[in-house]
Amino acid sequence: MENIGMLIKAFIVGGLFCVAGQLLIDRTKLTPARILTIYVVTGLIFGAIGIYQPLCDFAGAGASVPLTGFGNTRAKGVRKAVAEQGFLGIFTGGFTASAGGICAAVFFALSAALLFKPRDKNK
What whole-number distance in Å separates Cα of residue 77 and Cα of residue 89? Predict the structure, then answer.
């Protein structure tokens, strides 16, 4: 029963992120790329000041999977690397922490490109 509660919380929080993004698309002149950037930077800032992790603890994948979670992962990586390596960690920590996700994205994008025939959306 506890797992169902976590699934519901993840669904609600993740859904709210989607609703916010859709509202930004519908009600502003922001492009989807800018909205995605805003999500990553917001997650990074909230992660850096320590207010994003409680949301991840509450909602699980509903908060850690969206792009705000990617920003939070980078902030945690920088924090950890600075503690271990000092000043140099500012430049390496975010990349180290997010390398697995970036590699997975590249792998799956390449796999999709090789498996499916691209076509023009207007046809």
Answer: 9
Q: Which positions ≥6 away from 39 have C-beta within 8 Å?
A: 17, 21, 66, 67, 68, 71
Indicate the SS3 state at residue 31. Answer: coil
| Reported pTM | 0.78
Q: Provide the pLDDT for residue 114.
A: 92
pLDDT for 123 equals: 63
> Is 13 inside a domain boundary?
yes
Q: Which residues contact 97 (CB under 8 A, 6 or more apart)?
A: 73, 74, 76, 77, 78, 80, 81
Residue 26, domain member (yes or no): yes
Domain that holds residue 27: 2-115
Which residue type sits at 9?
A: K
Average per-residue pLDDT in the chain?
Answer: 90
Q: For the chain, what is the domain count?
A: 1
CA–CA distance, 72 with 49 (Å, rounded to integer) = 10
pLDDT of residue 1: 65
Residue 121 lies in a domain: no
Could you give the CA distance from residue 110 to residue 99 in angstroms, rounded to a whole number? 16
